[in-house]
Structures are given as structure tokens and as C-alpha cells.
Amino acid sequence: MNSLSEIGSISLDIKILQEKSMDMGLKLKNRKVMESINNIICLLRSCDVISLEQLENLKVSIAMLVLATLWVFDFIVQKLYALRKPKTSIQILQQNVLLKYK
């Protein structure tokens, strides 16, 4: 009986570590997006005349921002589709998954 509780404890630890890993990945992507936004703002504030190189940098930063926005949109849609599956416990999904990203 003791070994079953240890296995259950290990399983719970693994789930917690997986959730923390997902959170850290999301935070890293968000941080990269914010850095891109800050770079765009600094670029626009620092110059009166924008060179072609600066426009290329701006284009890349905007493209990264668009990709990050699409990633976040897909992530949210994926979580919402999980609510539509039959026999899904909506309350558990709301508590364990959705509220984490509030």
C-alpha cells in the first residue's frame, strides 16, 4: 500500500513539473515578444530619419510579433476546443488549465 502512495506522489510531482515547464515556456515566449515590442519602441523613439536597415529590423520585429500573436491565439483556441469534447469536466479544466493563464 505504501508503494502505491509513493507512485501516486511521483505521478503528481511529474504533472506539477510538466505544468511548470509549460508555464516557463510561455513566460519565455512572452518575454521575447515584449523585448521585440520594446525594440520597436526604442527604434521609433531614437531616430528622426529611419534608414533602410532600421526598416528591415522593424519588419522583422513586427513579423515576430505577428507570429507570437498567432501562437497565443492558437493556444487559446486549443484550450477552448478542449471544453467542447464530450464527457469533459469543464470545471476541472477551468480550474487546472484556464485559470492558470488568467
Textual characterization of the structure:
The structure is a single chain. The chain contains three helices and no strands. The protein has 102 residues and is mainly alpha-helical. The longest helix has 45 residues. The model has no long low-confidence stretch (mean pLDDT 79).
What's a concise summary of this model?
This protein is mainly α and 102 residues long. The chain has helices at 2-46, 52-82, 90-98.
Looking at this protein, list some descriptive labels.
102 residues; mainly alpha; 0% strand; elongated
Order of helices and strands: HHH
In terms of quaternary structure, the protein is single chain
Helix content: over 70%
* Approximate strand percentage: under 5%
Radius of gyration: 21 Å
Terminal-residue CA separation: 39 Å
- Number of contiguous helices: 3
Give the averaged pLDDT, no decimals.
Answer: 79
- Basic shape: elongated
Largest sheet: none
Number of domains: 1
User: Structural class, from secondary structure content?
Assistant: mainly alpha
Low-confidence stretches: none
What's the count of strands?
0
